[in-house]
Amino acid sequence: MTDTTVKLSDAAIRRRQIKEFWFYFSQNRGAVIGLAVFVLLVLTAFLAPLLAPHDPTQQYRDALLVPPIWQDGGRAGFLLGTDAVGRDMLSRLIYGAQYSLFIGIVVVAIALTGGIIIGLIAGFYGGWVDSVIMRVMDVVLAFPSLLLALVLVAILGPGLTNAMIAIAIVYQPHFARLTRAAVMGEKAREYVAAAKVAGASNLRLMFKTILPNCLAPLIVQATLSFSSAVLDSAALGFLGMGAQPPASEWGTMLAEAREFILRAWWVVTFPGLAILISVLAINLMGDGLRDALDPKLKRS
Amino acid sequence: MLRFILTKLLYLIPTMLGITLVAFGFIRLLPGDPVLLMAGERGVSAERYAQIAAQLGYDKPIWQQYLHYLGNLLQGDLGNSLVTKKPVLAEFLTLFPATVELGLVAIIIATVIGVPVGVIAAIKRGSWFDQISMTGALVGFSMPIFWWGLLLIILFSGILQWTPVSGRISLMYFFPPVTGFMLIDSLISGQAGAFRSALSHLILPSVVLATIPLAVIARQTRSAMLEVMGEDYVRTARAKGLSPRRVIGVHALRNAMIPVITTIGLQIGVLLAGAILTETIFSWPGIGKWMIDSISRRDYPVVQSGLLLIAAIVMIVNLIVDLTYGLINPRIRHK
């Protein structure tokens, strides 16, 4: 008898996994649209200097609150109009994409790293270590996230960096809880016992043996946190606690536009629309990721 | 059941202590001298400094300061506002009903619309209603509500001029607060038009605040219904010839509501965070706006105690949700 099992190289296995992932992901039409919009957002952020018709902080003193081009009084140079100090809306929106992406990436990176380490320790060691860590996480979760972020910013001082740190601290318990739950499920499995018997150190067991098998829910949570980070940082910006003027962060732009809401609809409408579209795209993508990576969580 | 309640209460204690530690630590983590921060921005003389330090216990070791702080809390002393000089607790209690009223109306809107939409979407899975409502829910879930509020102001207050821009009631009306809820107090006052005025002030902020919970509840109801409708007992109910209305209303909906009730309860934290933004946009005199104003005025005693009170409320509401959950789902209680 001949052996019919085909040995696949690592690369081939990975290719198959990606193919399988894409199969499930692309079943969800919304997710594909979300991904497309997200890719556009990334491109906009990277190509901002090429795409933006004007410098985002350049003030055209002869063009204050110019309406969008299709409205009476619109000017050809300013497609989406200008704000109260004569800055081009379109250019500011394009540069704003950089802020949103940057905020999302930094917040998720900090929250994910911190949450994974804390969750791994709690889940792996159990006992009183687990109890103490999880009670601390409960305390953080008892505060409404935006309020805690606001107070942290009050301590650290307003500004984009501090806003990102604050939001990351607030999100981190979610990752810690998820990691802990996944680790506790995996810890009892045979492959972990086998690795232990083979003499793997605790660190190796935690990060190399167990962690890779807990990643699916973490990736889904990371996507959701990415969109929440964009929303919350815009909210902080709107409340004057996030990115400071003249930054073209979308929430900060909205804060500056507030007093003109009844006079110039465009200064209010476009930044918010940009936030909504980005957040929606990422959430759509998150739904698709969940369906593809974590069938247990499947919505329907 | 009593045992279940007691265990839950016991679990609350370490978290409550943790919250007091956070609130206690807040003032000490702020850059600058805590005594000067607590004394306000005008500065103090050396004697006054020593007096405040002694009064607040800053001349003692940190653990004694914490115990002192806890002792004050237990006596209901949450400090005084630097701006108004009034006790923080009294200020909180006058403003809190405004936030509760806004939050209650919001959660009612979210539930009354969200649950039926979720149920219908689940029953008519794949239909245009399902697709449109779930797309709408995802948009609502992704909504920057501070922007949404501004858009509604532009449309309903600016263009249509149907609703006022801010506040709880028109300045024309004045009556002493009885319940603290403007809708009820305006009715009790018997003044013509007062209720209408209160309602027109309340409608936009509560719709804005309801947006995200509504989306979450609709999505959660739909998925809970879909799950339950695949269960054996629903199939049995169908097989024995019950009308579809009875199958859905009695057998499916009741069981699907268990996770939905938890979801509704968990929205309280979301509502309180949302209240900060909503109250700021609509100048609604509740605790959300009070917190924001206090942070920007550096009224730290208010921020410290406000933080504590809000977290305590979230904890208590979560406890009530947990208990309700145990009440309607005996499986949890007997675990």
Tell me what you see in this structure.
- The complex is a heterodimer of chains A (300) and B (335).
- Chain A is mainly α and 300 residues long.
- Chain A has a single domain, classed as MetI-like (MetI-like fold).
- Helix content of chain A is 70%, strand content 0%.
- Chain A has helices spanning 10-27, 29-46, 48-51, 89-125, 127-142, 145-156, 160-187, 190-197, 202-210, 215-238, 250-257, 265-293.
- Chain B is mainly alpha-helical.
- Chain B contains 14 helices and no strands.
- The interface between A and B is large, with 44 and 49 residues.
What is the strand and helix layout of this fold?
The complex is a heterodimer of chains A (300) and B (335).
Chain A (H helix, E strand, L loop, with lengths): L9 H18 L1 H18 L1 H4 L37 H37 L1 H16 L2 H12 L3 H28 L2 H8 L4 H9 L4 H24 L11 H8 L7 H29 L7
Chain B lengths: L1 H28 L4 H6 L6 H11 L5 H13 L13 H36 L4 H14 L3 H15 L22 H8 L4 H36 L2 H8 L4 H38 L5 H10 L3 H29 L1 H4 L2
Helix pairs in contact in B: 1-13, 5-6, 5-9, 5-11, 6-9, 7-9, 7-11, 8-9, 9-11, 10-11, 11-12, 11-13, 12-13
Key words describing this protein structure:
heterodimer, A: 300 residues, mainly alpha, MetI-like fold, globular, B: 335 residues, 14 helices, 76% helix
Short structural description:
The complex is a heterodimer of chains A (300) and B (335). Chain A is mainly alpha-helical.
Sheet-strand content of chain A, in percent, reads: under 5%
How many helices of chain A? The count is: 12
Overall shape of chain A: it is globular
How many DSSP helices of chain B?
14
Strand content of chain B: under 5%
For this entry, what is the oligomeric state of its chains? heterodimer
How would you spell out the order of helices and strands of chain B? HHHHHHHHHHHHHH
When the domains of chain A are counted, the total is 1
Task: Measure the end-to-end span of chain B.
Answer: 11 Å
Q: Uncertain regions of chain B: pLDDT < 50 for 5+ in a row?
A: none
Average pLDDT of chain B, to the nearest integer? 85
Q: Give the averaged pLDDT of chain A, no decimals.
A: 87
Apparent shape of chain B:
globular
Main sheet of chain A, how many strands, which sense, barrel? none
